[in-house]
Amino acid sequence: MLDTGRTARRLESYVSGAWRAGQGEAKPLAHAATGEVHALISSDGLDFAGALDWGRRTGGTALRRHTLHDRALMLKAIGQALMAGKDEFYAESLATGATPRDAWPDIDGGIGTMLTFASKARRELPNAHVLPEGPVEMLSRDGSFVGQHILTPLEGVAVHINAFNFPVWGMLEKIAPALIAGVPCVVKPASQTAYLTELVVRRILEMQILPDGALQLICGGVGDLLDHVTGQDAVTFTGSAQTGQKLRTHPAVVQNSVRFTMEADSLNAAILGPDAGPGTPEFDLFVKEVAREMTAKAGQKCTAIRRVLVPAAHEGAVIDALRATLDRTAVGLPDDAQTRMGALVSLGEREGVRARIREIAAEAEIVCGTPDEVRLSSGDAARGAFLNPVLLRCADPFSARAPHEIEAFGPVATVMAYDGVEEAVALAKLGKGSLVSSVFTNDTGVAAEMVRGVAAFHGRIMLGNRDSAKSSTGHGAPLAPLVHGGPGRAGGGEEMGGMRGVKHFMMRSAIQGTPRLLAAVTGEWVPGAPAQQDIHPFRKSLAELRIGDQIVTERREITEADVEHFAHFTGDTFYAHMDREAARANPFFEDRVAHGYLIASFAAGLFVMPEPGPVLANYGVDNLRFLAPVYFGDSLQVRLTCKQITPRDGTVYGEVRWDCCVTNQNQEVVAQYDVLTMVAKTWPLTE
Ligand code: NDP
Domain Aldehyde dehydrogenase, which positions (predicted)? Predict the structure, then answer.
């Protein structure tokens, strides 16, 4: 290892409210591409039990004082500031061996994921401390005893033990949902690339946006930390299956039923459809994607393609095409403009990858690449952890074990031939559970059969074809709105997936009681809870409006003339509204019926205030159901109740959700829905 005299940065941990250096001799961390000592790391002597306690008491208490939207806004501000200062992260990332192009999903991708969470949370969750989930369940005939699920933040700490390959994304995609949920985080990056995570955490803490204790960082080993986790804490782990299994069965984790999410080895497959032979766009897309996944981040991605499943008839063509691309891949220093693939994270990892290639090669032949001889366009293979891409071919994939079980965490993949879709599905399943697989086909039958065949073994499946060639986000990219994780060998965890990810850090409880008490818990009106009727609620600005403000309208009779007029005016002359005999022959109706949309329109006519007022706009309805037919002569009445109020930050309005219940003269509910409106914070409007 070459030390050029540059002073290596001694990393610190941020625990219990201060940056602290570990005691004793620190471990040197080498620059992946040059071998220079880049940083020093040690967490010896830190008080880990104290850190957990400080996070729970100081961070958790402070976070829970805020609403879901408050916390999302903190992340938005942090994400924007990180994005503005990202250049220094890119510079630091070079030491991990990643080219700037490889660093994009880590840095821009990580910050973008955080911003997506911040925005989705404010759009999809209420601005509240408690998150109601699902409908109110009637538990008694008279509606006096009801139930609903609610989610509240865990009162512990989220401990995130992360892998070396995504030092930024790996942290941000996990702290974003946890912090929105209201749970403080202790981040433990993999030592090898902890310098980049440490830099980002420094910048986040300097912003002073998060409350004290919301974010802590451990650079180095976690010591006895796991001995102190409780049933209110959550532990997430990304890395090798071996370490994961050890931590999952840690006595404190087992005894305290600690939530443990694991993402480990995954032998992801890319499957070329039987229809996608040479000359088709899908064939070209497949070859490009396999080559890209093998070489992006030098193949050190949990989602990288490891198994290349191809129809036997096209195996030779696929290998030739891949060899042509892989042989052209310029391997070298990550900051060299010619470089297409940078270095592995360390010389030690390179030795590990070589050893695993040897294991796979015992059951397969190498058809491209020379694992022990490195060809470089720049850099020094003795000092930097460089390796050229290695492609193998396994002639007997059903009896071979290694290509389905050995994850060579580098630019390595194995081609395996199949005969028919059933065989392709069976081969994909030999991975025993994967994060992702992709199927390249333009045939709807193949797509449906493959997905149904392999879905139970996969967290995500990407279908690639000519129509999404330009827009596809690709095989390897986990996306904030979609789940990431896989069963079996992949660890059995699930993360992100939009607001599902937030809920992983919250407790779901079923609350049972009267509508009045339930409404007090959730802050949302529930049918049967008290309501107040004074002035028309549409005359009230957000400053005056209260949950439970209600109007019960006059009645309006539906006539044949109304239905005839509506039918001819809108063009909706469906027979059930127009033809008595045909309507009577319909099993649902006894006679001609009013249009559902006529009912909703009359309902609006009954409850709106025509004059300009604080209700600025109606932006939709949710859960609209027509529950009973409305016949000529029936009379309709509307009960409209303010159900949920969501003030919007930085605007002059907020969103108000109204429970809208339309009944007939027999008090039967004929239509039920939520009306969504924008309501001014004050009226008249003031900027
Ligand atoms: P490890 O499992 O060794 O490390 C993963 C994380 O766990 C690191 O933060 C590590 O910290 C930490 N850790 C290790 N031992 C303990 C322990 N006893 N208690 C608490 N934390 C611990 O994996 P590596 O990152 O070294 O990668 C090794 C292999 O794992 C790769 O070659 C690859 O095969 C696989 N891997 C899989 C990934 C995936 O997502 N599928 C991602 C990354 C790696 P420290 O670094 O300080 O030891």
Answer: 61-457
Is the four-CA dihedral 140, 141, 144, 149 of positive or negative sign?
Answer: positive
What span, in angstroms and rounded, lies between the C-alpha atoms of 107 and 631?
61
- To the query of whether residue 544 is one of the catalytic residues in this protein, the response is no
What pLDDT does 649 receive?
A: 83
Residue 525 CA, ligand 1 centroid: distance in Å: 48
Ligand 1: atom nearest CA of 188 is 9
Q: Which of 12, 92, 185, 302 is catalytic?
A: 302
Low-confidence ranges of the chain (pLDDT < 70): 1-6, 687
Q: What is the pLDDT of residues 426-481, one digit of tens each?
A: 999 999 999 999 999 999 999 999 999 999 999 999 999 999 999 999 999 999 99
Residue 213 CA to residue 360 CA, distance in Å, equals 46
Q: Which residue segments constitute the domains of the chain, with CATH numbers given?
A: 51-263 (3.40.605.10), 268-480 (3.40.309.10), 531-680 (3.10.129.10)
Percent of the chain residues topping a pLDDT of 70: 99
Residue 324's alpha-carbon distances to 273, 291, 377, 410, in angstroms, are: 21, 10, 17, 19
Check residue 7 and give its pLDDT: 82
Q: Which H helix or E strand runs over 48?
A: helix 48-54
Handedness of CA 117, 298, 247, 26 (dihedral sign): negative
Q: What is the pLDDT of residue 2?
A: 36
**DSSP assignment, residue 614?**
S
pLDDT at 648: 87
Residue 307: strand pairing partners:
269, 414
Distance CA 377, CA 328 (A): 11
Q: How far is it, in rounded angstroms, from Cα 56 to Cα 179?
A: 13
Protein residue closest via CA to atom 46 of ligand 1? 190
Residue 558, judged by CB atoms within 10 A of its CB (0-12, 13-18, 19+), counts as buried
Active site (annotated) includes residue 368: no
What SS3 string covers 492-544? CCCEECCHHHHHCCEEEEEEEECHHHHHHHHCCCCCCCCCECCCCHHHCCCCC
What's the helix, strand, coil split of the chain in %, to 5? 35, 25, 40
Residue 562 phi, psi dihedral angles, 5° rounding? -60, -45
pLDDT score for 6: 64
Cα–ligand 1 centroid distance for 182 (angstroms): 27
State the distance from the centre of ligand 1 to the C-alpha of 262, rounded, in angstroms. Answer: 11
* Cα-to-centroid distance, 244 and ligand 1 (Å): 8
- Token pair 């409007």: residue: 685
Instruction: Give the residue whose CA is nearest to atom 24 of ligand 1.
Output: 239
CA distances, 98 to each of 36, 219, 336, 339 (Å): 16, 21, 11, 10
Ligand 1 binding site (Cβ under 6 Å of any ligand atom): 161-165, 188, 190-192, 221-222, 238-240, 243, 246-247, 263-266, 302, 352, 407, 409
* 3-state SS class at 379: coil
Q: What distances in angstroms separate CA 22 from CA 29, 219, 223, one per listed residue?
A: 15, 9, 11
Strands 37-41 and 9-10, by their bridges, are parallel
